[in-house]
Design goal:
2 copies of one chain form a homodimer. Chain A is mainly alpha-helical. Chain A is built from 7 helices and 3 strands. The structure holds a DNA duplex (30 and 30 nucleotides).
Amino acid sequence: MDHVDFITRQWEKERPDLDVTAMGIIGRVARLYLAYQKEMHKTFAEHGLNAAKFDVLATLRRAGDPYTLSPGVLLERTMVASGTMTNRIDRLESDGLVKRSTNPADSRSFLVGLTETGLSLIDKVVTEHVQTQASMIADLDASDVELFQTLLGKALVAAELD
Amino acid sequence: MDHVDFITRQWEKERPDLDVTAMGIIGRVARLYLAYQKEMHKTFAEHGLNAAKFDVLATLRRAGDPYTLSPGVLLERTMVASGTMTNRIDRLESDGLVKRSTNPADSRSFLVGLTETGLSLIDKVVTEHVQTQASMIADLDASDVELFQTLLGKALVAAELD
DNA sequence: ATCAGTTATCTCGATGTCAAGACAAAGGAG
DNA sequence: CTCCTTTGTCTTGACATCGAGATAACTGAT
């Protein structure tokens, strides 16, 4: 009996008219997400980062050499609001991890690029990050992992249809 | 090829030394969580609520008659910091949905209880909420749901061990 | 009964987020 | 070439969150 069971049982008692099947699934997805976040945050914090900063640095690193994207593309790929991205870039810039430079193709825009420090930091952190992630699913065997991927895929399609 | 595949493929190209299996799972859990949040938020917003307010009202409602808990118990059950709970109670109180009253057993503490308005609101919203949740997993058949529950349970145990 | 330690809640400052609006530059129609 | 519209980014204000510290009240040992 986990925390989610506790909640669904309370609802069954108080509001027996409600079908809480979906709540069980969605509640566990939420708990799992929070557990993952919490653990991953430790890795980030050890290097002076948080999820927001890691997100931007990793997006730039993944983009490949020269590790440079416009704020607009970063927006799209990280799915945050424009003001949020301005703020993230400001903080990373004052940390010396990224640098704004002019965009020769469009002077409304900038190019945001990893600095030397930023590149070596993200390469180090992402190596630890995938190890953290691996350790969190280490107890699932190979067939579970495959099945889980499939179900998550189905659930995502179902949820994103609305 | 979904968004998570896009990211893992970028990493495979840029950092072929990394094993991104876990990233695929954890990334999909995160996407799913966000998709669920986004949809559930609509239901809350239709009634002037957000997830934070719903969380508190629902916790009080689930607790059963007389729909009253101390801030400390609310803290435990909603897993937020104490300052956060103070703020949530303040907002709900100014909305007229909950009311602080003195705790006869401990005068450091208060009792936070649903008002009439709060009770009828949360009963209405939670009814819609479970419908929203049900619709988001409606495309999964019964065997998928069962399997998914099992895997989420396993994954939770694995993740919370660390 | 007193005092030290614990507990329950609130306050405050720093962060991070979003949404709406401002502003400058680019692009297209005439 | 000139407008008008669109686009890309930043600014601002409102919230929500956390964590550390403050405060008041309870508890237990002596």
